[in-house]
Amino acid sequence: MHILYNLLFLAAAIKWGDWKNWRTYYPTWLFFVGGDLFKNTLLHDHMLWTYKETIFGTQFLFGHFIINIVIMLFAYSSTMLIYLGNFPKLPYKQVLWILFWVVIYSSIEFINRDYLHLIEHHYGWNMYWSILFNIVMFSVLKLHVKRPIAAWLISILALIVLLKSFDIPMESFK
């Protein structure tokens, strides 16, 4: 099923993505992917959510890390081309655009968690945290385009909040 989701993201990017300016979005894509890789590395033994494949492609999408890499390559790339490439100029439309993407990502997670069983939450993570995370993530991704240092600082602060909120044991960092 993750294959289908990623193909849908890719099809959306082909239709609505700003391919002419992909170089403009590339640093933010690296920030996005780098943050996800850092999260996976830092919380390797204390993952707040994990992906799994239960429907298609279980032979090659056989674990969280492999699925996450596929998501990084296709869904995140597509997201950057559409989300940043079509970001509105008017402030109220910017808020609506961010909320639109929060709804997309949160709805996919909800369906994958509750109906398709393609994602599992752990250690107290829930949909409310996911929605809050998505709000921060999409806001910070846009901020990163113009003010990367501010985006990094907010991301570090958000990481500290998550580490404290979920009482991540220090042994997880060994």
Report what the structure shows.
The chain is mostly helical and 174 residues long. It has one domain (2-173). 68% of the residues lie in helices and 3% in strands. The chain has helices at 2-16, 22-42, 64-83, 91-114, 127-146, 148-165, and strands at 49-51, 119-121. The protein has a two-stranded antiparallel ribbon with strand order 1-2. The chain is globular, with a radius of gyration of 16 Å. 21% of the residues are buried. The mean pLDDT is 92.
Jot down its keywords.
single chain; 6 helices; 174 residues; two-stranded antiparallel sheet
Poorly predicted regions: none
What's the number of helices? 6
- As a percent range, the share of helical residues equals 55-70%
Shape: globular
For the sheet with most strands, the description reads: 2 strands, antiparallel
How do the helices and strands follow one another from N- to C-terminus?
HHEHHEHH
Number of domains: 1
Largest beta sheet: strand ordering? 1-2
The rounded Rg comes to 16 Å
Q: What's the rounded overall pLDDT mean? A: 92
C-alpha termini separation: 33 Å
Number of strands: 2
* Helical/strand content category: mainly alpha
In short:
This protein has 174 residues and is mainly alpha-helical. 68% of the residues lie in helices and 3% in strands. Helix 2 runs antiparallel to helix 3 (64-83) and helix 2 crosses helix 5 (127-146).
Give the helices and strands, then pairings.
Blueprint: H1 2-16, H2 22-42, E1 49-51, H3 64-83, H4 91-114, E2 119-121, H5 127-146, H6 148-165
Antiparallel strand pairs: 1-2
Helix pairs in contact: 1-3, 2-3, 2-5, 4-5, 5-6
